[in-house]
Amino acid sequence: MLGLFSNKTAHPLADPREAKRVLTGIASRDPQGAIEEAIAWFESVGGDDGFKPAQRLDLLLRLDEACAPQARRLARDYPSGSTASRALEVRLWDLGHNYWVQLFTAYLFCLSGYRAGEKDADMIKPQLQILYGRLVSVMGANLKWDQFHYGPIDPDFWGTVGGIYLAAGEAKLAQKPLLMYPNQAETTIEAEYIKVLVFQSSSMDKLTPLQIEIGERLIAYFLPFFSLVREVRPENLYWVDVGKPLPPTRLAMVPEITTTLRFFSCARAVEAVGRTIEQLTKEHRVPPGINLGAQYDVATVIPVLRHFEMCWALKPPIRSTVRRRINSGLKVVNGMAGIHRRLSGQANGADVIETWLVEDVSLGGMGAQSNVSRNDWIRIKALVAVQPEGGDNWLLGVIRRYARKEPTRGSVGIETISKVPRAVLADSGGFMTEAILIDAPEVGEYARMVLAPNSVEEGVALLFSVDGKNARLHPRETLVTDPDYVIVNFFVQSYS
Questions:
Q1: Is the pTM here over 0.70, yes or no?
Q2: CB 3.0 to 4.6 Å from 448: which of 180, 243, 310, 438, for a disulfide?
Q3: Domain extent at residue 401
Q4: What is the pLDDT of residue 1?
């Protein structure tokens, strides 16, 4: 369609030959370079009043298509753990997040012009289905990048995406087959909306960024097992009022009945997840029909599937311990090295102690409000040492849940893995290794220890002294692997 519209703009992409050159260049660039360039074009095309509405939309659609593969690659690579520094990680998140925000803003500008009846806006009508579909799909991508960062979610998000879905339904377009992007399977606007609802309902605040990326692709695979209905049914698990600015909510009681109330069930999806887990366990590989965007081993994929199996179950999991509401301070130290120094009494001026606010406690852990900074270190599986207000001992924990409620405030769930952690300096075959003892050693039993990655050698015992006794422990299995630490189970040979 490029070149079919007369225009009065001097914008370079108004020239069909220049537009073709730019689109070809974006498609051939590396992800970071392509996305940086695309962001600039989204802003300039969306902000140039010289374009006719259909010409502007046509350019945006093609810019989106040209950069789509690189955008998918960035989403795959960002959470892989391969970033060389925290600064680079922040830059990549800013880049990916800004890309989808700018694309959404540009598309929404086109839709707003059409709704306002601006001059020549009726020429957009033949492209209205793809515009609605791309808007919902782009909002889903926005939600994923926000979740990579654990929020916060724009309070207008649910009202906007619901409004777009309703408008598509009123135009009889929501359930029509749609080729969203070239070389992809057909979808519908309703399917894209359901995908956003399921993503939100799947407790992504308990997953790592890599698991979130894998999870989004798994949701796309299981999407045919979900449906959106108006009727109250026994198998309904979640409800959403599409006309209200509210996220989907687990069905505890029937909400106020409105014309925009919808329900969706996960029962068929749970069954499909169970069958998939069995297949992966049996075949030790991810079936070719599941496109995860990259090759992942079964041990990486199955925990995500089990997480969905729990989130989508008709009966939610019951808490094993009672939570007690409190309101008190909490000192927090993060990272294997910093925690070891703190526990061994060798902390220095560079070691930071943060102060959080505890909201609830149980035998297994606690919930707290955290402070959030630009270079926030908080992430799922992060190792922390915490000291409750008024206490003199440190507890060892792992962050299991994290959500940014505001730009400067987050909600954190901490699992306590040791109430009496001990910092030791162990001899590992002649090499001195820092370690944190989780369990008290007992001869003939097993004890867990936290160590730096790659510091444990198979068959090589750890020798150390603690509480005036000499211990000899043999590594048996690695229980947890993280870029900052590993947790290893040791057999206690001697302790005297």
A1: yes
A2: 438
A3: 324-418
A4: 42
